[in-house]
Write a structure and sequence with these properties.
The protein is of the alpha/beta class. The chain has 6 helices and 6 strands. Helix 2 links the parallel strand 2 and strand 3.
């Protein structure tokens, strides 16, 4: 018998659907030993994949960039609707779900976009924890400013006004010079 004090395995840093079969094998083993399984995902997966995950998945955090499909087309070569549908599906299935939105200046930081994101999440379940995180320039988007703290605070206020109950501002690294 294997003895472990590991309470949870989080499948993150690389999209877990990329190594789906491997992750699922590990999830099954973990489940047999009472270890919880949490995914951090882009939420872009098929119904068939979700059906296979459900018996072993305890929680999921889905990155939702926004309701504007142009954002998904331009930055992810995808579409926002499947992601939103999967947020709905996980919520309906009773899987603990949290959503993270990286707020990028000039991309999804305007009041209209933030209002639409918060409204969509609230329609699904206003108790879904919503993490709104600060963007820092890196990799292919180096010429964009850091998300102003005020933008994140405004997004939080919009979410609360719409009826979201749990909103968290994140990635507010403070560095000493």
């Amino acid at each position: 018998m294997i003895s472990s004090s590991i309470p949870v395995i989080s499948y993150t840093y690389t999209e877990p659907t990329v190594y789906f079969e491997y992750a699922l094998d590990i999830m099954k083993l973990a489940h047999n030993y009472g270890i919880f399984n949490i995914w951090v995902s882009n939420g872009y997966m098929t119904d068939e994949a979700i059906d296979l995950l459900i018996p072993y998945l305890d929680a999921i955090n889905i990155d939702y960039k926004g309701s504007d499909s142009l954002i998904y087309e331009q930055y992810c070569q995808g579409d926002s609707q499947p992601v939103l549908s999967n947020i709905q599906r996980f919520s309906t299935l009773g899987i603990h779900i949290e959503v993270t939105t990286l707020i990028v200046p000039g991309v999804n930081d305007n009041v209209e976009q933030i209002t639409k994101i918060a409204s969509e999440l609230a329609r699904i379940d206003n108790e879904i924890p919503w993490h709104i995180t600060r963007f820092y320039p890196a990799y292919k988007i180096k010429n964009t400013q850091i998300t102003p703290k005020e933008t994140l605070e405004s997004a939080r206020d919009i979410g609360y006004k719409i009826g979201m109950k749990y909103i968290y501002i994140g990635n507010m690294v403070v560095s000493k010079v």
